[in-house]
Specification:
mainly alpha; Helicase, Ruva Protein, domain 3; 5 helices; 0% strand; flat
Length: 101
């Protein structure tokens, strides 16, 4: 990666360390152990513009908090008939091989 890219990642990382606790927790759910890769993904989406990438990530994290995305599976689907109908109609099957990279 170019020096400018590394500098952008460092700046973005520094901004992420300043987050309050709910946003930090949500960011941990988003990156799932790959914080640097997640930051790079947002930076690439905004052509390595740190302020724009930061705003995009903050919008994403705030949306997840407002909509309870990180706890959506903890709540049961009521009524249970609806859950069974959804489960039974969304059957998925995959065959084949994935390409090793």
């Amino acid at each position: 990666m170019a020096a400018a890219s590394e500098e952008a990642i460092k700046q973005f990382s520094a901004l992420m360390e300043l987050l309050d606790e709910p946003l930090k927790t949500t960011f941990q759910h988003v990156h799932q152990g790959y914080a640097r890769g997640t930051l790079v993904r947002f930076l690439k989406a905004r052509e390595w513009n740190v302020p724009k990438a930061h705003k995009m990530l903050m919008d994403c994290l705030n949306w997840r908090i407002q909509n309870g995305i990180d706890s959506v599976l903890a709540k049961p689907i009521v009524p249970s008939d609806l859950y069974r109908t959804i489960r039974d109609t969304l059957l998925v099957g995959l065959t084949g091989y994935s390409k090793q990279v």
